[in-house]
Amino acid sequence: MPFRSSGTATDSTAAKEEHFHDTWAQAEEVGRIDVRRANEACTAPELRCIHQRLGDLRGRRVLDLGCGRGETSVYFALHGAQVTALDISTGMLDLTAALARRYGVSLRVHKADAQDLRLDPGEKFDVIHAANMLHHVDLKQTLPQMLAHLDPTGTFISWDPLAYNPIINLYRRMATQVRTEDEHPLRREDVTFLTGQFRRIETRWYWLSTLSIFMLMAAWQRRNPNKERYWKAVVDEADRWARLYHPLERLDKLVLRVFPPLRWWCWNVLIFGWEPVAPAPTT
Description:
Blueprint: H1 8-26, H2 35-40, H3 45-54, E1 61-65, H4 71-78, E2 82-87, H5 90-102, E3 108-111, E4 125-131, H6 139-147, E5 150-161, H7 166-174, H8 188-195, E6 198-206, H9 212-220, H10 230-236, H11 238-258, E7 268-276
Helix pairs in contact: 1-5
């Protein structure tokens, strides 16, 4: 994932983040990454919504910020997009490139962090996708740079965890070995700032009662949250969890429709933005 780098302290953080994700990449086997499952599984509701909402991607320029293992970058490419996969981690970019070769698609990998994207100033994208990335950066510093590369008719997409759900906060305190130190899940003011950067927005909220699956992983299956990433496992094991997930997903939709304030207790918020607001002139 890309991170800010604007001084000694943040440079040190960026180096730690790069090392963390390089180490993660070394533990992965490209042959075991199922791109279609990662994007289409019932337990990947954010990505299912994104792909449905975007529609035909043929020929569209997509920037995948913080591409990680590359599942979504490759999926975009499989559907005809011209993809730039950006990450701070050389290991993750190597994994993404290998995954693209395995699936017979081409894409461009680009090493950079969020504070300095190192893209051509005039380079524009039809879609900018930032998955689980914004809660690692200073929004006010990094978002304007990202939006400078969004085509005027383009779509900005982000999805990130929220700060308030007690189940996820308990998980965060437990899963210290599979997370990074700089994470700061989004708070209300972050979401307000983010959505305020666009003239048109659409928000979706995911994982309320469905989070009970994580509780079952920990309490019933006794799975060590520092030995595996629950958020990856729940997608890999979608078939196993489907009978529980589907009714809980329907319950979540009903509850959030009747009691909208409970959306802040969801795990993730998905935001679509169009028509960025021009930044105020500096004096």
